[in-house]
Specification:
18-stranded antiparallel barrel, mainly beta, about 425 residues, about 55% strand, Porin
Amino acid sequence: MALHSPFKSLAQLSLGAQLRTRSELRDGQGAPLPEGTKPAFFTSQRTRLNAGFTGYRFKVGLSVQDVRVWGQDASTVNRTTTQDNNGLMVHEAWAEVMLTDTTLKNKTFSIKLGRQELLYDDSRLLGNLDWLQQGRRHDAALLKYEANSWMLHLGGAFNQNKELSSGTVYNPTPPGNYPANTNGGAMYKSMEFFYAGKKFEKGNASFLFLSDQFSKYHSDNSVKTWETGAWTRFTTGFFFTNTFNKTTLTASAYYQGGKNAVGQKLNAALLTANAMFALNKTFSIGPGVDYTTGGTSGSTSKAFDPLYGTPHKFWGLMDYYYAASGFGGHGLQDFYIKSKLKATGKLLLAADVHQFLSASDVTSSNNVSYSRNFGTEADVVATYNLTKVISFEAGYSHYWSTASLVSETVKNVANAKSNSNWAYLMINIKPDFILK
């Protein structure tokens, strides 16, 4: 007599892989180069193996990746991985337990534990930063309640460098002085957030409240000594997107307060709005504006930090703003026009133009004033899907910079080139299959 268990009937194994190479020509990517500086050229590679297992009232996910630049290892040497060189790492390793019976299809209540991506709305504040070869992940716990078109998520993380016998002092600076996040800031010691979202037929709206804490410290001769306790920052606001007939409208507004990672009081905001008009089945175009506050008011910082999102998606593909290369906390005004053309069933073309300005006054240490104009960027990207598994992507960007952009308190580049270029070719191979 055969025995059939509900676990066996529901069990499902998924396997996947990704090999993504990206060759880049950098002649001022991130910041303008000084005159006479040679452009850089290299190829980076992400290799990922993904596995997932679903059973009765649980799911498990695992993603292991190796990220490196071609040639950074001597062909006969097995090096020791450092964070500066990325290398082999666990990108995700999580388990999700269904706290209610999984036969209730329109309602779920679960808890997800472990290393995981946090991906919400348009990825502006919480995203997986997939453009970066190593991506972004969090060691966190996530309580999820989803019913019909509503979703309520409550998440939290508490970071420590190692197992301790006493205390909870946390050093957020990885070895090699490597930035802990893409904004070049310190890694949070702890983080909590509440997300409430409502799905529409062609869009969604959401509310976010996120609080992150940063280790307190004191400095002696520029050497930081980490202390007990933490400074707390909070970010809260709303997001909305929906398609009305042939027009897609997106807007968001967030406020940031508390204290930042250096213990400075915060009073900052982010405002965004954009529209995309589908002129026909193949072409869409639309304007937009982003505004982040910046500068200081007395001892209070007005510089908004876009948390743990995907800046590459929003503020120009050359990553001049809110990426690894800082711009002095001046805040940003970004007026842009974006367009997309579906040339064929397999070829997609995109072209964007950005006009960037500072959101606060730009002055040097000896009180020389500059224009708020940071310059103009043009981005062109072509994506060709050879098959469902294989795709090619090529892009070119050009930046026309100003004296304000390269000034002492912004990018601080002496004798800078006024024109910067960046080009890339990316090949993405991503097979996956499911076993039942």
